[in-house]
Write a structure and sequence with these properties.
Elements (H helix, E strand, L loop, with lengths): L3 E4 L12 E2 L2 E9 L3 H14 L3 E8 L1 H9 L6 E3 L3 H9 L8 E6 L1 E5 L20 E4 L4 H12 L8 E3 L2 H9 L5 E5 H7 L4 E3 L9 E7 L6 H12 L1 H9 L6
Parallel strand pairs: 1-4, 3-4, 3-5, 8-9, 8-10
Antiparallel strand pairs: 2-3, 5-12, 6-12, 7-10, 7-11
Length: 247
């Protein structure tokens, strides 16, 4: 049984958290878009170890997911790409257990293959007429982009600000942008579809990823088991292989 990935915010409205169909129960995991590859893998591992349980994912920008949770969207687990959006869910009463930090991530520059705009550094992102794409400021990758450029005194003028890091990556891989700021894990996952330009200033904005079970989960035990998988040895191994840092 393969874990189900649901892309985009709001796609789970009308889907009950921890629903049951026959002898199969479903737990719903809200997770930052940058976690899509590794969490889908871990979801498959979870299902293999828990016969009769299916993991359904909703991957989107952490700010969108936190907003959905606080508007009452049903879910069992929330994994954010930053502490700020997890704090919003805590403040909204959807998370009462102490969230656990399970991974870290930092930014890199991606360009179309061959780097046709000849980007060699963070300061090159201020080039006139460069079609730069970044995440929106309320999204963790956008907050990190703003932090690194501000600290380096680099002025950028993006042509668009996206709601998730995967949207930024898509603009670059489709040729709609000359460069984008994404997480190192997303760049690694894109492989030959992009050229990666690392920059030392990325160390000034390292995002931490917290995870927690949702307070009103209708399957609290299964939700906590998934959190344990992510934070345990198997989860740490998968995250490291995907390029994430570990706390």
């Amino acid at each position: 049984m393969a874990a189900t990935a649901v892309l985009g915010a709001g796609l789970l409205s009308g889907c009950g958290s921890s629903s049951t169909s026959g002898d199969t129960k479903t737990i719903t995991v809200f997770a930052a878009a940058s976690l899509q590859r590794v969490f889908t893998q871990l979801g498959t591992q979870y299902e293999s170890a828990h016969p009769g349980t299916r993991v359904a994912f909703s991957f989107a920008g952490s700010s969108d997911l936190a907003a959905q949770l606080n508007q009452g969207a049903p879910a069992d687990v929330f994994a954010s790409a930053d502490q700020a959006n997890m704090d919003k869910a805590v403040k909204g009463g959807r998370i009462t257990d102490r969230p656990q930090t399970f991974a870290t991530n930092s930014l890199t520059i991606v360009t179309p293959p061959g780097n046709p705009a000849h980007i060699g550094s963070l300061s090159d992102l201020s080039k006139p007429d460069l079609r730069l794409v970044v995440c929106a400021p309320q999204v963790p990758c956008g907050s990190a982009a703003r932090k690194v450029t501000s600290a380096a005194n680099v002025s950028i003028s993006p042509v668009s600000e996206e709601s998730s890091v995967t949207d930024v990556l898509a603009k670059v891989t489709s040729g709609q942008a000359d460069a984008g700021l994404v997480y190192v894990t997303d760049a690694a996952g894109a492989g030959a579809k992009v050229t990666t330009v690392n920059f030392p200033e990325s160390s000034t904005a390292v995002n931490v990823y917290p995870i927690a079970a949702v307070t009103d989960s209708k399957n609290a035990e299964a939700a906590k088991d998934f959190v344990t998988l992510v934070t345990g040895p198997d989860g740490r191994k998968a995250l490291r292989q995907a390029g994430f840092g570990l706390p």
